[in-house]
Description:
Strand content: 15-25%
Number of helices: 9
Largest sheet: 6 strands, mixed
Strand order of the largest sheet: 6-7-8-3-9-10
Number of domains: 1
Order of helices and strands: EEEHEEHEHHHEHEHEEHH
CATH superfamily: P-loop containing nucleotide triphosphate hydrolases
Number of strands: 10
CATH topology: Rossmann fold
CATH class: Alpha Beta
Shape: globular
Distance between the termini: 25 Å
Radius of gyration: 18 Å
Amino acid sequence: MPLLEIRNLVVRYGEIEALRGATIAVEAGQVVTLLGANGAGKSTTLRAISGLAKPTSGDILFDGKSIAGLGPEAIVRMGISHVPEGRRVFPGLSVKENIMLGASNRRASKSEISREADAMFDLFPDIRKFSSALGWTLSGGQLQMVAVARGLMAKPRLLLLDEPSLGLAPVIVQAVFKIIGEIRRNTTVLLVEQNARMGLSVADYGYVLETGKIVLGGKPDELWGNEAIRAAYLGGHAKVSA
C-alpha cells in the first residue's frame, strides 16, 4: 500500500479547475517528483494534500486513511510537512528561531527542540554560522535551507517540497538538491519542480502534470527517454501526449 495515494482528485478555484482527476501514488521511502509548466496544477496538488486547498471530488489517502478535507493542523499532526514555494521565513526572527517553529505541532520541551534545531545545522552546514542572524539578512539559497530545515523539525513521514530551486543560482541549486538526497534516507518526499533535470536527478519516480491532468508517469530514465518530455521541459515546444 502506498504511503500517499491521490485518486481522481479535482480541485477548483471558483470556475477554474486547477486539478482535473489527478491520480498519484508515493511509496514509503521514495522521492517522487511532479513536473509541469506554470499553471499545470503542481502546487495545487501539494496544497490539497496539506489541507490548504479543499478537493471538489476525489480522495487523498495517507497510510490508508482519507485525509481529503482535513485542516492543515490535523494533517501536520498525522506526519505531513509542507515547505511552500517562496520560503516564507519570518524576517524578524533568527535562523534558529525560524527552524524551531517547525516543531510547533509536537509536544516537546523547548530545550529538546533547541537541541534538535542545533542538530539541523549538521544537515545544513551552510547556514550554521547564520544561526543568530535575522531572516531578512539571508540570501535566497540560505532562506530555502532554513525553510526545509523548519519542515523537517515536524519529524514528518512525508515532506512536500514546492519548487525548492526557484530563483536560485545553479551552484546553490546543486547544494539544495544534495540535501534532498540526504533527506530521503529518513523521509519520504513529494517534490514539485520545474527544473526537470534536477527534479528527476533525486527521484525514484516522476509524474508530468499538464493543465491539471497527469499525462505521463515513469521512472526517471523512462521519462528522459520520451522525446516529447525532453522537448517540452528542456526548451522545446512539443506537446506532451498521454
